[in-house]
Amino acid sequence: MKFDTLKDDLLALADTGLKYAKNQGADQAEIYVSSMHNININNQSGMIEAKDGLNEGIGVRVAIGKCLGFAAMSGLTDDALKHAVSEALSVAKSVKQDNEGFDSFVSKGKVGKDGILDSKIVEMSTEELVQSANSIYLEAKNFDKRVISPSAQVQSFYGGHAVVNSEGVAGASKATVFVIVTFTTAAEGEKRKSAFDFKVTREVPEFENIGAKAAEKAVKLLDSKPMEHTGVLPTLWNPNVMSSFWQMSLAQSINGRQVVEKNSYFMDKLGDQVGIGKLSVTDDGQLPEGLNTTAIDHEGATRQTTPIIEKGVLRSFLYDSYYGRLGKVKSTGNADRRQGYESTPTISSSTVVITPGTKSFDKMVSSIDKGVYVMDNVMGMGHSNLISGDFSVVATSAYLIEKGEISHPLEPITIAGNLYKSFKDIQTIGSDSKLLQAVKTPSMLFDGFTVVG
Amino acid sequence: MFDLLRYGISTGEKLGADYVEARFDDLQLRTLVKENQKIKETNLNRRRGLGIVTYYQGVPGYSYTASLERKAVKGCAKNAFGIAKASASIASIKLNFERREKTTKVHDLKLSIEKHPKDFDLEYKIDLMNRIETSALADVDWVKSSRALYGEFYGNKFFMNSDGDEISWEPLVIDLRVSLTAAGSGDNLVSGGNGKGGSKGLELFDIKKNTPEYLGQEVHKWTNEQREAKAAPAGKYRALCDNNLSGVLAHESFGHCTEADFILTNSSALKDKIGVQIGTDIVNIYDEGTPEGDYNSFWLPYDDEGTKTTKTVLVENGLLKGYLHNRSTAKMLGEEPSGNARAISYRFNPIQRMKNTYFAPGDLTEEEAIEQLKEGIYAIQTSGGQVNPSDGTFLFKARRGYWVENGEIKYPIKDVTIKGDILSLLMNVEGLTKDLEISSGYFGGCGKGGQFPLPVGLGSSKILFSEATFGGEQ
Predict the structure, then answer these.
(1) Closest alpha carbon within chain A to B397
(2) ipTM score
(3) Residue contact A96–B473, C-beta within 8 A
């Protein structure tokens, strides 16, 4: 399938699947097809691992009465289509338990806009990507003789997905994505320190300096000293770490499924002040540069911009059609498929956007008498307790802030606090917004976390 | 199928490749999820496709296709060769390995089991979930929510290369799990989880200690205990880690550091440490494809480069003995291929991954270990963690545990993080119990290079540490 005509080609195949499913006895059906081309070049200390391929396949959901079945198969052939449909039907027939929450697949709505598409990503050859990875790798390698393990990974993606269902939905969306990740280790004596940098964008980005920047960060960390402090301190988090902070703190708390199932910390707090007055958060499914921006979501619903927190007040949760129905609200267009065609829809934010403040990063630093600057990497955020919000992370690239200036790097420190309660402990929201994979956030200053190191 | 693979290989060779490998996978994955006694997901995925590696001047290139048409296979070989050629002039590390003198011809290798999941219908599997969930719930009012999972993975793998090896085998893994959340003291929520899995037939759940009823009762008991558990104290304490947590330490904090790609690229804390004392002399760690004995390991007879898996000695009497290899890194580091080149599906090239990684057992009983612990934390089960192989630092979350005083269990403690670096931790091993357990499963699994979740086995007995760092929680 050509990228130019990809939407029509995918829609045609999905439509064939829908007709077949109905013929075979499905009361209702939904056919999801996707095709994603990927070139992946990884240069790790001069060892190159490179691959390309087309990840394509079909995911079929059918309903017989209220019994649901799902099956998926790799490939976009008639054979794969028939296999997925008949397996899904066989599951629906033998499951013998109604899915009480199910009524129908999502109903027809407006088809929105694709995000930015960059034809250069489609046209880029393997050779060009190998060269790009090599230039980033060499920058890191040649930065300093203490660099022992430079690496650069460059990936291009282009493709799309289509959804049709028995409610009349027939939509498709395309995307182009470029990924650069560079990870470097520096060593001096027995001491080893690692740092990374990355870019994930819908257009081919500038490559320059990304390798050198990661190497510089790793080398600087070699001067780390123990913190020798236990107690509450102001902590300034850069956009990279704020991105994981937001993903964890909002993953469960604003997810409509968790609200319906009563696992969300915020479930009974709509309209309440949950954060400081300057905190405003939206989920933007139509942000042109957003990585998860699509014309339709992954069950075919309209993508939209949803206010989550306005001036500190909780405004909305995120829903797909299934949990929207159970929660008696409309879908907010947040159905995602994490494993592409291999998975059924689940609720996920698209791009979480934090409204930036007015203070620059430097001004934030100068406002701190004694504190910690947390940069790039925290370990353990993924193991936060999402029910209570308690977290405890190890910051491996942190700096001491003393008398308004960034002082020396620190040996790993532990930072502990509560994700949800911290919305009220925000001291300052920075002006330096950065777009990351699923979040667009500035740096932020918190006071109230316990620092041990 | 071998015909199609042969066609891919000859296409690559005609283009000028020095060496070609072709794989075909047809894998079926079933995931069943029940929540609060209702069926939530009944998913079936079939991953079928073909992948080709070509080597050109010591540099590999990989390409894959889900189409089984000859035209697609030809395109795949061409792309793989194009990638290798584009990378060849740039790569400074060349991966040359010797061709095999003796070729392997093994067809349709499979485990001998009684109840293959493909022969049992959906109802049978849903019933297993019903039983484990009902048993875990046990009709009490304090459980807030429950979740039961069943997973199975099986299919066919075919491998062929320019050496003339021809291997086909049938991987298999099954898994049954349950978890509960409950109201603890105050407004706190607590949780508990339990399960069993491995390369076994469904007869696994007929064994007394693995029946859904037994597994459910255990998680009920553990979750109930968590309701009144106290927070663990933070700081450095003597510690006893149970089989599950120690097994995860063997895999995550230690095993990854022995993967030879990390060694070659200066990304591992264990580089240049062969023959060096990295643990106390009672520490022995192995990585094995087909452990003998009654374990729930993952069965891996051959890796995805056609190498027969071995019992790889990683640590013996505290000395680092070896690394985990594919053919190229073994040659470069002067060791034997260990059968650790693995790919999760046709969409991925094989990379260095673990097989079944485990601490060999010691001679203590659990009672003796607790007595010897005297005062400290008995940390049990884990909900996962994170590790940085380049410096060996790690952070894990123990799911539950006990505070021990005077060699006796005093009270249950809540989940607690354990952190440190692997080299210091192994030097703190004071004793191991006798009861080795190796486990594997469908859920969880290992992630590396975008390939997740790859089934691996991990194991240990209980390990007594003279010191470990806990906490950070308030």
Answers:
(1) A383
(2) 0.92
(3) no
